[in-house]
Design a protein that fits this description.
Number of strands: 16
CATH architecture: Roll
CATH topology: 2,3-Dihydroxybiphenyl 1,2-Dioxygenase, domain 1
Structural class: alpha+beta
Helix content: 10-25%
CATH superfamily: 2,3-Dihydroxybiphenyl 1,2-Dioxygenase, domain 1
Distance between the termini: 45 Å
Shape: globular
Order of helices and strands: EHEEEEHEEEEHEEEEHEEEHHH
Oligomer: single chain
Strand order of the largest sheet: 2-3-4-1-13-16-15-14
Bound molecules: zinc ion
Length: 309
């Protein structure tokens, strides 16, 4: 049983439209699912990914309108690292992000920047042989597009988590300190700890909620028992419609999810129309007439390109 790298990363936004403009507009990801937060159906849960919505490229946001901006601290993921093809892509993104008013920092073959709410991202030149997971965008040549996750960095003391990561989850320790790789048959991702800042963490807009690691569908129950036996107090296997999930907090405090590869985002709409309509899981579908009018209408940058075709 091996985890296949990162499945998705879920973060928090206070402004769904600004979030959509940035992730689908500026970064060129595809909005592959527009749903609602299952704890509060008057607000959005947005999923962005590559063109086909593959695990390994999926960043999702819960919207909490007007929530104050947070600050990553101990026990939280503070940076999301994406792969790009090479130095040419780093230069392209430096220019593109600068032209949208951001202030990216280039260090050799990496580029760091924050989204409009302060969530930190980094682009790095892909070293792994994994399939590039890219989305189409008329202003972004395919060979320069984001290619999916390389890894995430968290703030924490690594020692309490070392045994769980290595002996239970099968993360492979790598040289250079608190650094591991979760690699399966097809994909892999890094998990890295950095020294936490002295400021207290504050959950809020622009912070990561959890990271999900990809499992084979037939192994999720077995993973649930494995992490339970390791003392993590996981949830039962929860059906999220697009995948099935188990949640637990790893000892250093970061919220982990294990999520199945599939059934995926085409379970309730065709590939060519992903993310266009509001998708409600079967539990909420009968409430559509109540839910839809409470949501602010979103303008997807992709609609404008579709009209230009
Ligand atoms: Zn999740």
């Amino acid at each position: 049983m091996q985890l296949e790298g990162i499945h998705h990363v879920t973060a928090i936004t206070a402004d769904a439209q600004r979030n959509l403009d940035f992730y689908a507009g500026t970064l060129g990801l595809r909005l592959v699912k527009k749903s609602v937060n299952q704890d509060n159906t008057s607000v959005y849960h947005l999923f962005y990914a590559d063109e086909t919505g593959e695990p390994g490229s999926d960043i999702t946001f819960f919207e909490y309108p007007n929530l104050p901006t947070g600050r990553a601290g101990v026990g939280m993921i503070h940076r999301i690292v994406w792969r790009v093809a090479g130095a040419e892509a780093i230069d392209f993104w430096h220019d593109r992000l600068t032209n949208t008013g951001l202030d990216p920092a280039q260090t050799g073959e990496t580029l760091s920047f924050t989204d409009p709410e302060g969530l930190a991202h980094e682009l790095t030149v892909a070293q792994a042989p994994d399939e590039p997971l890219t989305a189409h965008h008329p202003e972004i040549p395919a060979n320069l597009a984001l290619q999916g996750f390389d890894g995430v960095r968290a703030y924490a003391d690594p020692e309490p988590s070392r045994t769980l990561l290595e002996d239970t989850l099968g993360f492979d320790p790598k040289p250079g300190g608190a650094r591991w790789e979760a690699r399966g048959e097809h994909r892999g991702s890094f998990y890295i700890y950095d020294l936490p800042p002295s400021e207290r963490p504050r959950k809020g807009a622009g912070t990561v909620h959890h990271v999900a690691w990809a499992t084979r569908p037939e192994e999720i129950e077995s993973w649930q028992r494995t992490v339970a036996d390791a003392g993590t107090h996981p949830t039962p296997v929860i059906d999220r419609h697009y995948f099935r999930s188990v949640y637990f907090r790893e000892p250093s405090g970061v919220l982990f999810e294990l999520a199945t590869i599939g059934p995926g985002f085409t379970i309730d709409e065709p590939l060519e129309h992903l993310g266009e309509k509001l998708s409600l899981t079967p539990r909420y579908e009968h409430l559509r007439e109540q839910i839809e009018p409470t949501l602010t209408l979103l303008r997807n940058p992709r609609d404008a390109w579709a009209r230009l075709k």
